[in-house]
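Consider the tokenized backbone below.
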């Protein structure tokens, strides 16, 4: 019998599979997140995220050096201050933890693109992303605080800022503030599509940013919604975003695919702490092949249309790929 179609011809050995592979993963595609703490005197292990640390500034520089040597081109920083207040004044303080960390990285010999997370939740004593009136987050009144934070990060030397608050109109306000301060060349990555997800638990432990009451469903997106994601992304494009980010990643690849077909800007996804913790927990039990699952999950994001992935596995994966 003569068979007309034999797709297995293109799968019969590793060399052929590599040659015709449709989706490729590179260290250029990865961003390593780091936590830096004002209270840490040495790197503090994060119990819910095995292998991840709350860094001192000194250990952050060392860790970033390791990332760069592995082939990572960019990091994103999350700060944990020693004091918090209702308005999150540590977020835009000249001597704030992220500002000091950015300066230390820029003063070192490490060559990395330094991205800063812009939000108030790590700096407010109530753990919410903006200013409050009672238990309601004040949208417009919070935008000035977010813009001041972004400008302070740019002044410290950040290459790009990444607002993660999901308040309405913040991209336009931050872009205008950066331009007026002379930082029109600073890139703006918008967490345009950030869902009110249960996958953030370990991050809130790591950043000590869990809300003191309530939740973030009034401003982060409902996990049930897909069409709303395109509207959010289009609004941020119109307001001046240079790149668009979807968070979380794995549970929202349908959203990634749709945005890829509609948005021409670089598209990022954040493989969040819960995704990381699930893989680490299953691997620790011996239930999965850790390396294979990490690589497969990242490939699925690239296949869906993501250009760049924020992942806690970034540095390790870069080493594997080399």
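A designed sequence for it:
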């Amino acid at each position: 019998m003569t068979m007309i179609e034999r797709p297995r011809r293109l799968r019969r050995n590793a060399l052929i599979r590599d040659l015709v592979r449709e989706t490729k993963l590179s260290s250029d595609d990865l961003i390593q997140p780091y936590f830096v703490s004002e209270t840490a005197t040495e790197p503090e292990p994060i119990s819910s995220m095995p292998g991840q640390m709350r860094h001192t500034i000194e250990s952050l520089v060392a860790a970033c050096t390791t990332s760069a040597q592995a082939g990572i081109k960019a990091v994103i920083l999350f700060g944990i201050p020693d004091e918090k207040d209702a308005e999150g004044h540590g977020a835009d303080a000249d001597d704030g933890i992220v500002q000091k960390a950015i300066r230390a990285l820029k003063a070192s010999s490490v060559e990395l693109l330094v991205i800063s997370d812009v939000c108030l939740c790590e700096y407010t004593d109530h753990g919410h992303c903006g200013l409050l009136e009672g238990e309601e987050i004040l949208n417009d009144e919070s935008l000035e605080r977010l813009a001041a934070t972004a400008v302070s990060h740019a002044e410290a030397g950040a290459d790009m800022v990444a607002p993660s608050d999901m308040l309405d109109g913040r991209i336009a306000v931050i872009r205008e503030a950066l331009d007026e301060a002379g930082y029109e060349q600073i890139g703006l990555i918008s967490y345009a599509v950030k869902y009110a997800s249960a996958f953030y638990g370990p991050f809130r432990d790591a950043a000590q940013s869990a809300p003191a009451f309530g939740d973030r469903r009034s401003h982060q997106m409902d996990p049930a919604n897909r069409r709303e994601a395109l509207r959010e992304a289009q609004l941020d494009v119109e307001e001046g975003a240079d790149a668009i980010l979807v968070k979380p990643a794995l549970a929202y690849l349908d959203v990634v695919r749709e945005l890829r077909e509609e948005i021409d800007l670089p598209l990022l996804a954040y493989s969040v702490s819960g995704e990381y913790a699930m893989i680490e927990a299953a691997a620790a039990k011996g239930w999965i092949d850790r390396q294979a699952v990490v690589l497969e999950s990242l490939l699925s994001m690239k296949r869906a249309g993501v250009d760049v992935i924020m992942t806690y596995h970034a540095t390790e994966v870069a080493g594997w790929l080399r």
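Residues 24-321 form a domain with the TIM Barrel fold (CATH 3.20.20.70).
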